[in-house]
Write a structure and sequence with these properties.
Layout lengths: L2 H4 L4 H12 L5 H7 L1 H12 L3 H25 L4 H25 L8 H24 L14 H15 L3 H28 L1
Helix pairs in contact: 2-5, 3-5, 3-6, 4-5, 4-6, 5-6, 5-8, 6-7, 7-9, 8-9
């Protein structure tokens, strides 16, 4: 079961988080934009190969990404623009982290590390595009959701990859290889769903 399928179980916690952080007076869109700050800090520590601090700030960025949606729901400020901005920032956050991993210089695994990083980046983009294109071309009435590896699962794997990199960068390479394979399989899975419908 994907993280997406489990989100409803987290509704109560999300509501409490939203109410808590709504008191700070920041709009959901401001929270969305603020996620870039810890992401850039995480990028910096990745380049410096300080993987524990990189993981910590990446976790903070992911938590702030949760805050924006929670605040939007409890304050009744969910908008199409907010959803669009959140989606765009998600792509930037993931790309910045991938770029940081590239500059960290992880070891190769059968093929050059750059190959696996590019394949992962391509798979990540195609997973999103497979959903967007199916909706744009009217192949589906509702957005295709779910699949082997959604963004939440990708972020979780990246986080643990950074933690494991503290013991050896090759472990981060293993995580990138897994992500490279599964993101592309997810894209094909979504294409198959769109074609069947």
């Amino acid at each position: 079961m994907t993280f997406y399928a489990k989100r409803e179980k987290l509704g109560g916690l999300s509501s409490r988080i939203g109410k808590t952080f709504a008191k700070l007076g920041l709009s959901p869109n401001q929270w969305t934009l603020l996620t870039l700050i810890p992401t850039i800090v995480s990028f910096y520590f990745l380049v410096k190969r300080d993987f524990l601090l990189a993981a910590l700030f990446f976790l903070l960025s992911s938590f702030m990404d949760w805050i924006d949606g929670s605040v939007a729901r409890v304050t009744g400020k969910t908008t199409n623009f907010g959803a669009y901005l959140d989606s765009m920032m998600d792509r930037y956050v993931e790309f910045i982290i991938i770029l940081g991993i590239y500059f960290a210089g992880i070891p190769s695994f059968y093929l050059p590390a750059e190959f696996w990083i590019i394949l992962y980046l391509f798979g990540s983009l195609m997973t999103t595009y497979a959903k967007a294109a199916a909706k744009e071309k009217d192949l589906v009435k509702k957005e295709i959701k779910g699949g082997l590896l959604e963004r939440a699962e990708r972020l979780i794997l990246l986080f643990f990859g950074m933690l494991l990199a503290f013991f050896g960068r090759i472990y981060l390479t293993y995580i990138i290889v897994i992500l490279a394979i599964l993101t592309n399989l997810t894209a094909f899975q979504r294409m198959r769903i769109a074609i069947k419908k």
